[in-house]
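Please study the protein below:
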Amino acid sequence: MKRWMLPPAFCAGIMMASLFSSCVSDALPEPVLPESCMDSIPTYEGSIKSIIENSCAYSGCHLDGSAPGVYTSYGGVINVVESGRFKEKVIGLRDDPNLGMPPDFSPEGRPKDLSQFELELIQCWLENSYPEK
């Protein structure tokens, strides 16, 4: 019995066509602002400062220079915000127990995680050019 074989060039053509037809470039959707942004834009003085004081700027961390940055004022926070490190550590790495901020090894009585509401406020503040007042 004679077997019917497809020419190798034809097979290669079919494979290439299926490969290229499966590659598409979909546009990324526009980011949706958190619900906390719908009513008003948070400011450093109005909302963010208290989160930072409670979760970051305390003795042994970002208050006295034990960790990189002294977060006792807007001026102390703004450099790390503008560099993107703040968003990376607080939002991007939030589930990492050691690299995310606040870390899981925070002292007793200090939060080891930010609440969903706090994360949304910070995200909204960052997305709106982190206003001071």
Notes: Residues 48-127 form one domain.
